[in-house]
Design brief:
It is a single chain. By secondary structure, this protein is α+β, with helices and mostly antiparallel strands. The chain has 2 helices and 7 strands, in the order E-E-H-H-E-E-E-E-E. The strands form 2 sheets. A 5-stranded mixed β-sheet has the order 1-7-6-3-4, with helices on one face. A two-stranded antiparallel ribbon has the order 2-5. Helix 1 packs across helix 2. It is globular.
Length: 73
């Protein structure tokens, strides 16, 4: 089962999402993880740090499965 990570906006960049989910501590770490092909979005390897994620997207990285969720207000 995927761990849900809530975002406040309609979209979030992949790099920012990895930091928000605490899989990486810095943007540089996110960049390296993505460039090495270790991140999948909806089952497809993603190499763009700026890829915009939306609620419902699934991210697999560092052995963790995450689902983007819109924050409830």
């Amino acid at each position: 089962m995927a761990r849900r990570v809530a975002i406040r906006s309609e979209t979030i960049s992949l790099g920012a999402f990895l930091k928000l989910a605490r899989l990486v501590a810095t943007g540089g770490e996110a960049k390296l993880l993505i460039q090495r092909g270790e991140v999948r979005v909806n089952g497809v390897v993603e190499r763009r740090r700026g890829r915009q994620l939306r609620p419902g997207d699934e991210v697999h990285a560092a052995g963790v499965r995450l689902r983007v969720q819109r924050e409830e207000r």
